[in-house]
Structure formats: C-alpha cells, structure tokens
Amino acid sequence: AGSGADKLHGGAGHDLLDEIEEYLAVFRKRPLPKTRQEFETRATLLQLLRDLETFIELKVDFYRNYQEETN
Fold it and tell me: For 8-45, how does the pLDDT look when each residue is reduced to its tens digit (9 = 90+)?
C-alpha cells in the first residue's frame, strides 16, 4: 500500500502539482475581476495555490533526498 510519504513522493505529489497548474491555467483564462472584493478573493486563492505548490515541491524534494541518503 505504501505510506502517505511514499504517495506524496511518487506519482501523487507530481499529480497534485499538475492539478495546481491546471487550476492556474483556468485562472489565466478567466476575465479580470470586476470588483475589489473579487480581486482580493482571487488574489488570496492564487497565493494559496502558489504556497501549496511550493510546499509540495519541497516535500517531494525532501523525500527524494531522504530516500537517497537511506539507500
């Protein structure tokens, strides 16, 4: 079955990064916000997606490095 770390390191981590990129592509295609509230909401969501992307990249890299050290 594999641990959660195995899943995040393997295809799942890269799958999550692909999904985030798909969401970002949708953002780019949408019309610009019409109100300040819509702008702020989108900006917050965009920043959250970017932070999540960075976290997953760090997690995958950490796990890869950890595996290299333990093998």
Answer: 555 678 889 999 999 999 989 999 999 999 999 999 99
Angle between helical axes of 11-29 and 36-70 (0-180°, round to 10): 160
Cβ(49)–Cβ(24) below 8 Å: yes
Contact 13, 61 (CB under 8 A): no
How many Cβ atoms from other residues are within 10 Å of residue 8's Cβ? 19
pTM (predicted TM-score): 0.71
Q: How far apart are CA 28 and CA 4, in angstroms?
A: 32
Cα 49 from chain centre: 6
